[in-house]
Amino acid sequence: MNYIIKLPPKSKRDDIIDAWVNDVLHDHDYSRLRNTLNNLIESGFNRDGVMFMFLHRTTHEIARKKIVQQSRYELAEIAFSNPISLN
Fold this sequence. Notes:
Number of strands: 0
Structural class: mainly alpha
Distance between the termini: 33 Å
Strand content: under 5%
Number of helices: 5
Shape: globular
Helix content: 55-70%
């Protein structure tokens, strides 16, 4: 049995990344990221598709690069060299 997951458009991925970067740098409660993900699901995008896009390797790589670029922390490159976790 095949399970087809329709991903949101890449512009929505940019919204997810922007919210994630903002929350990592400013709001460790991740409220903006959670709201962005919930709004995408509530607006009709498939929940599995939204989560797949959020968890995808390229999304993490782009978010990591933006966090390192925008961070004032001198060891940001080392701190974010491993996969990003919400734990």
